[in-house]
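Box S1 | Example of a co-folding query
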Amino acid sequence: MISTVIDQELELEFPIFQGGMAWVADASLAAGVSNAGGLGIIAAMNSNGEQLRAEIKKCREMTDRPFGVNIMLMSPFADEVADVVIEENVPVVTTGAGNPGKYMAKWLEAGIKVIPVVASVALAKKMERSGAYALIAEGGESGGHVGELTTMALVPQVADAVTIPVIAAGGIADGRQIAAAFMLGAVGVQVGTRFLVARECTISQAYKDKVLKARDHDSVVTGKRLGHPVRSIRNDFTRAYQKAEYDSSSFSDEELEKMGAGVLRLAAREGDVKNGCVLAGQVASMVKKEQSAREIIEEMFAQAEEVLNGAAKWVK
Ligand code: TUI
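Box S1 (continued) | Returned holo structure for TUI
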C-alpha cells in the first residue's frame, strides 16, 4: 500500500488528485474520483458563483467523500467563486494559472486547505509564506495552461525550496510515473489526461476518442503570443491558430483572442474536435482504454507499488 501525509490528512485512500480541468471536471467526474479513493476536483473555470454552488451541491449528492474545487485565476468569475467555496465549506481549494495571493487570508480564515498550482520555485516559496497547505508542482508536459519547466526539473526544485507537501503534476498517466514523482520528492500526484476517458467523465465521446487515438507527438502548445500558452491535441483549430499566431502583420491580438473564445466548450461539450480545442497532456498517447475512476486509480497504484518494490534491485 502506498500512503503519505496527503492521503492521511485529507482522508483519501490514495495520494492522488484529479486535475481541475476546465469544461471537463464537473460533479460527475469529481464524485467518481472521490468515490474511488482519490481527491475529485470540480473546475470552477467555466462557472459563475451560482453555477459552481449548484455543481458543489450535485457532487455532495453523489459522494460522501471529500472533494475540492479548482479556481482558474484568469476566470472572469474568480472573485465570486472564491466566496462560494467559503460559503459552501469546501475543504480543499486548488488554484491555477496565477497567484491566488489576494484570496489567501479569507480562505485560511475559513479553514480551507489551499493548494496552489505552481510552475516556478519563486511562486512556490511565496505560497508557502502565505500559508498554503501544500503545492502542486505542474510541469509543462500537462494539458491546458503550461509553464516552462518540465515535471522532471520542477518537482525536485520545488521540493527543495519548501517544507510543505509537494504534489507532482504533468506527464503522469501510469504507475511508473507515480513512482518517479515520489523519487523526485513528491508525496502525491495530480492526474488530468488519464481521467478524461474515465467512465464518470461527461465530455463528448469525440473528445475521448481523440485522446485514445493520440500518438506521442500529437500535442502542441498554442497561445504563447498572448502570454497564456496552452497544450492541446493538434487539429484544424491548432493549425489555424498557430498560423495566425505567427503572422502578427495579418492577425491582431484581438483577433487571436476571438479565435480562442469558446473553443474549450466546443470540444468538450459539443464534440467538435476539429474546430474546438482538445486540451490534453503529452501522455495522451499512453491512455489506451476507457475505465472507471476506480479502475484507473487502482491500476496506477498497483503498478507504482510494483515498481517501487523492485527499485532496490539497482542498488548494489
Ligand atoms: O491552470 C492550469 N491549466 C489550465 S487553465 C485552463 S483555462 C484557459 N483557457 C484559456 C487560456 C488559458 C487557460 C486550461 N488549463 N494549470 C495550472 C497551472 N498554473 N499551470 C501553470 C500555472 C501557473 C503558471 C504561472 C501558475 C502560476 C503562474 O505564475 C503566476 C505568477 O503570478 O507568478
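The domain at 7-202 is CATH 3.20.20.70 (TIM Barrel). The pocket of TUI is lined by residues 22, 45, 72, 74, 96-99, 117-119, 123, 138, 144-145, 147, 228, 230, 279 (CB under 6 Å).
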